Amino acid sequence: MIIEGSAWMCSNTIGLSELKKDKKLFLRSNSYNNSELNDFHDQIFKQLFHFVLAEYTKAFGDPPCSFVWFVTGSAGRKEQGILSDQDHGIIYEVKDSSYKEYFLKFGEFLSDALDEIGYPYCEGNVMSSNFIWCKSLEEWKQQLQHWMEKENWESIRFLQIFYDSRKIFGEHEYVQELRNYIHAYCRLHPNLLKRFMNNVMRIKKGVGIFGQFFVERTGSHRGSIHLKHTMYLPYVNSIRLLAIKESIQRTSTIDRIQALRDMEIYDEWLKPYESSFNRILEYRIDLFREAKTYEDVHYLSINQLTKEQRQEIKTLMRNGIKLYHQVHRIIEKGC
Q1: What's the angle, vertex CA 27, arms to CA 316 and CA 72, rounded to 5?
Q2: Domain named DUF294: which ranges (predicted)?
């Protein structure tokens, strides 16, 4: 029996509507922090996964082998905002063409269901419905090997995306196994870490040397600063570099900082950056509760800020640039 994703969606909107309703009710409340918000996103993911799996197996049978469903991007780092798109993939145990067909179709149903309840499709197609992100364990190792050996921008970008992956469903720790595969390669080929670093060298500055904000000059967000690029990503990318260097399995930026601070060489100088990043996560929630679209949560109009907020945001931006330069020196020295 062939069931297209769109047909399945039409017949299951009632079940998904309850999840969509729960999501809206939670996001309308004003009593959650970053940790609580991301725990809620996880709860929705798990409920949706089990709902889709139950319906899918009715039509296509039980999964043919063990598998893991993981999220990545901001979801993998447990740093999703109020509005978030979807980034996810599948790792299944046994390499078999019929298994690939089963899991790719399942990934399509998952992607459609996530979109239905308010997690838009990933523009970069980082979804279980894409064969690049839905593979057997053996194929995943081959793909990672290919990305690590191929010296181009896209391969490193894909490695960075995968490195932030976190399991949502599955008994086996395939994600950790594959992350260890990256760690082992880095130890044998230190130049890979520098390639990671070169990939994130271009930081979009949000504040000038005279303290002026660099705002968008055209488009619907004219007069706004791009918080994701100017304030958030410098911390995320810098700490990820250190996590790769030190073979850290944790995925959230804060957890990675704490794991690094357990090491004497990082403890004191990373302490203020931990506080800065926590403050950034607070801002992302407090300032974007009324955002209407996924794009809106990345832009902030400086006109809505108080004088104190402007000064603090400038400091957070400068600290992000400072952190990146410190990490750059560490990796260049190879120590």
Answers
A1: 65
A2: 191-329
